[in-house]
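Here is a complete protein record:
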Amino acid sequence: MKRFEDGVSDEARDDGDVVAVVEGVPVRTSDNAGSYYCAHAWWTLSCWASEADASAARDPEGEPLIGFLHVPADPETTGDAQETVRDRHAVLRQVVASALAGWLEHLPKDGRVLLTGFSTFAGVVDNPTGAFTGDLDEVARAVALATGADARIDAAASVVRGRGLEVLCAVLPVDDRTLERARAGSLPELLHRVQPHAVLSMGVHRVTDHFRVEVAPTSAGLALDDGEGRHTWEPRPFLRRDEVRSLARAIARGVSRPGPEKP
């Protein structure tokens, strides 16, 4: 078992079923999101979606359209130089497009999706999730793949619009500011203000070579004080919520659909 700033990871125990293979890279389920801010974001999403007035749409299985995706690290993550030019986000773009396509039929007209990634922290000098989410051109390519139509970028609002879809993009800091309900741009504030119908949150996982769809929200590593969350490494009992597999099903559907040509 290895401990990193992003939590405690044990690959043999964490790996679940393969739900899809994208450009040769497996997408697997995982029941351990760690005990750092990725886990905190997933817990926050799950709690929000369970509220009676939550705006989240649901799939035919009755689960909210929310999910947390762990993205494998790449050479840029730790600042390693690349000798050859490559399309860094080629596989991530396809995975995000598959998720959006798989959710699209369950969204209302002009459904709102909140897409989040994380910024740098510790040894992560270039987080692939923040780099993707903060690049609206990349998000627009994913939206175009998902909808089969050109996407439009509203840079001032950090929004990408496609056919029947509106994606708001946000890069979250890897600290307690992400959890503060009253702070503009925090995850709770975004959920309250945007009122999304679906949420795809992403973070980097540094010890796997595949994508991990987290299905088990827990409060591991999170201290709750009057509803506010803060990170702590202190050992403490943690809470667990019911599994949510709507993202895994969406990616599987999106990958297998007869899709449009790549833009």
About this structure: The longest strand covers residues 15-22.
